Queue: 2 jobs
Job 1
Amino acid sequence: MSDITFHPISMHQSLPEYEVGVAISTCEFPGIAQCIAIVGIRSNKMICAHISPGTTQTQMNDIFGCLKEAGGDEVKYWYLLGPTEHHFVGRSTLWMSLNDIKKTFTRKLKSKSTSYLSFQTVLAR
């Protein structure tokens, strides 16, 4: 087990790095300079995670364990948000491309008919 924090269902979530939660209304991801935010919509809730480029394999396994526990196997649409051009540059980054992210979802979660929508964010200058 790693240092991943799981937050149970709540109206609002604020998820810094290495945290996973379930939100009914809103979810924010503070400090997303190089990170990837993951949001899956299931019924009337959002299953969310904040992934750092420094995430270890153990942490990634725990994150996907939390996503699965929150109902991630039933999600049809996953939204990937973040500055991927900054996330994918680190040599220690587990995910080097959007395709790597999709492969992780396929390996870790059951649903094979899932769609992935990616939103590139940029830092304001």
Note: Residues 5-120 form one domain.
Job 2
Amino acid sequence: MVNYVQDLLFKTNEKSPTFSQSLADFVSPSSITYQGLATRLSDATNTTALLTTSTSASLLRSQQITTDDPTKFLQLQGITMGKQIGRGAQGRIYPITYQGNENDYLYKEESSPHLITDPEDQLSGHKFYRIGGDIAAARCKLPNTIESVGFFLKIIKNPKQMKENGAPEDAEYHYLPNTSPEKIKADAQTLLEEHPGAEIFLSGQIMKRAPGETLGSLISEGKIDTTPENKPFKNIVYGLYSFLAAARPRNFVHRDIKPDNLVFDQNTGQLTVIDNTSGRHLARRNKAIERESSVRPSKDRLSNRGTIGGMIGATLVYALPAALDRGIISPGPGESLSIQEKEYGAEFDCFSTAMTLLALIHKDDVGKYCIAKFPNKNFLEFAANELADQWGDDPKKYLEKYLSWIGGDTSKTHGILAANSDLKNCLQLLFEASAAGEAGEAAFAQLATDPYLVACKDVSLPPRAAV
């Protein structure tokens, strides 16, 4: 049970090397003749770091490519890929190497091509530059996030004919560079105009490497100082707040903030938010959409992860309770899982942040919460709406309820917060900010002058500008 809880909180099914490990042991020797590929790092204006060739500059422009395997396209550009160094529910991470430089960039291969258009969403279903997670995040230029270089897309041009007539798949493959928010939108709109009614999938991307290790690894292995009065803890709090404060006015919601999606560099105190796969750039503030979907998730996704089949994205431990309400209709033998997805705005990330900080304060207490609320390894035996009912619909009571579930005033977390009233108030405001509407907005506004956050800012680096 303890191993299950730790897996649910911090780990994937397969332990991966940390980001801070040297990649030299994993990179295969290059067999490719390099053809003038150059690396141009961020310039004085801190614009996007890009990989480019001196001749065709092909990675700087949107283009159709002739292969369904992005790694072959990389090889044609003189870029080689090393052995896998990380794996999560959404994909696999590989170092990419140019002229012996193996430290700056990574390639993420999606576990399966990720659908980034949704014909059921009448407002923005085909605007994949809004609902396509990583692409949406790149357009918003959010601070303290992974810096994307470019994206590999698969376009299925005849989904209707495939479904209705059993027609063979007619697909094209494109590379979409992250040169600017305006260019991403323009290129995306061109593709949508050329292929009306198409389904568009994200199959991979090139990204900048985030320095440090995942917070989940640091917590579970006891390699970080979690004392609230000390600098590392305050750096993490301020890094998260900086991300939330920038994402909120941009109407971007990450929907999967948790320790495994945060990379922390203990040398600099810099926090990086990673894996924007579940994120969306909403058309309006706190938009809520309800719809039912029937899916048949893999056993890997449902056991030991607490993931709602990839539909909502955040593990149940960190997911906004309101988003879980009536979230699952238990299937019969051999039936698909029916999910009523509720999409929420910025308040989702406030709840996830509060739970992440509670995991940082004392991981064993969050483990107690998991044992109490997630007694079965088989996710299908758990009704998400039961958890939503237990949290209730009053975020002002969330912290109090959590403390009661882990042992009340006998818990370590209670003692730590009793000795740090400013931190407790900060957590309370984060939970209150997880309410939709004016109440949530008012609570979030108070965070800007919250004494504990002000103290965190005083010892932290300024937010790293999006590039």
Note: The mean pLDDT is 75.
